[in-house]
Amino acid sequence: MSETYTFSDVKTNVLSGLLIALALVPEAIAFSFVAHVPLISGLYGAFFMVLITSVFGGRPGMVSAFSGATAVVMTALMLKYGIDYVFAAVVLMGIIQILFSLAKLSKYVRIIPRQVNLGFINGLAVVIFLAQMDHFKVPSPSGAEQWMHGSQLYIMLGLVALTMVVIYLLPLLTKAIPATLAGALVTTFAVIFFHVPTTTVGNIAHLAGNFPTFRIPDVPFSWSTLYIVAPYSFILAANALIETLLTLNLIDEMTDTRGKPNKESMAQGIGNLVSGFFGATGGCALLGESIINVTNNALKRLSGVTTAIALMAIILFASHWIEQVPIAALVGVMFVVVEKTFEWSSLRFFGKLPAADVAIGILVGAMTIFVNITLAVVTGVILSALLFAWEHAKHMTIKTYDDDQGRRVYEVEGTLFFASAHEFSELFSPRNDPERVIIDFKKARIVDHSAIEAIDSLAERYRRRGKSLQLQHLSRDCLDLLHAAKDICVFEIDDPRYYIADDKIS
């Protein structure tokens, strides 16, 4: 769908895109250090990902680039096998994400429970915050890193504070330019004008480079190569898609709009596939930079395209100027991002939500920080599902009475599934019941094969004792799965109509 732009839209998206480019440079460099890959590969990864996902993705305004979620996975592969195996893994990562999109699996990320989503968001905010702490370290005389102290620390903190003050106060005066860009520019000009001694982008690395060229990763085309890279590629793909799709969900909530997760997954896959063939690291959506765009109201594809063009211009032409930007200015921007990303409202849930939900959110946040995003979210979803099953299993009730014909009637209420099937069976007494029994499922719902097996087993218990059993208000689709109870079902016009997912009837 084509986008329309006003002059204000163009200005907002271009300025925000320029700021994102400034913010991505030190982050791409930092993550390149983490993964032990060439710095230029990390910058190329940011360029390809933000360009391709901005043009073809399903969530305009979301920023994708080389990220911590992918960098930490690459480290072991890089150290053991070298950069070409990393590029091969990125290519396979892209293929996996494309297949994920073609299978239309992205929509299932929307079933992730709210407490898991909150845990991920808060955990990622802490990860972003902790990542900035490395900028407060300097080499010691012995060569090891140590924390800043004295005037060096005070200057760094002062510049960070200056950036944050400008970002928070400028919107009170004007919204003509993005506050985050203004904060970075004010701090940069202050450092240059007053000759403030502080670390700049140029102190970390020189960014001059050439336009990326196509090259096939120099690895053997064999099963042994696939055996090496496949595990890394699957973890990379899972980490990247989870972070991307959860970020997409968050932006949907913040903007009250609806992104297209399958389209975004396809764009992510294409971006990583292309990256691997152009000497780039690939990547995924970045929550922090995406929040900057949302905060600046830069929700058009133009913002990402501007970021990509600015990144390549920095690499080719403007590296000397960008190298003068103080790291403190970018740290200040990221601190504001952390504050806006963290769901402070979630702290009010303590004592108001069930303790189990709160515990799951805390666990997911901790695992996001200390383990990895994929395992954190998967663990949270599994625990939430088990908690859901346990809670629903406790709501199985039966009302019993004898009708005017002397028949014992059981009215079942609740959800019958694997967690409640055993309790369901224990609620009946074939030995003590009269000769004729009716089980009414009008207020119950049959969910899975375990429920069908429980009904069949119960019918067999009554049959062995020679008693007449009648089942009422089951779905007609249950007949395809029932055995012992097939002939004792009585159907009426108001029977439920729902479908049972089972291999036997699929």
UniProtKB/TrEMBL annotation:
Q: Which organism is it from?
A: Acidithiobacillus ferridurans
- InterPro entries attached here? Membrane-Transporter-like, SLC26A/SulP_dom, STAS_dom, STAS_dom_sf
SUPFAM superfamilies named among the record's database cross-references: SpoIIaa-like
Q: Which PROSITE patterns match?
A: STAS
- How does the record say this protein sits in the membrane? Multi-pass membrane protein
- Please provide one cellular component term from the Gene Ontology annotations of this protein: membrane
Q: What is this protein called?
A: SulP family inorganic anion transporter
Q: Where is the STAS domain?
A: 397-471
What is the protein's major site of localization? membrane
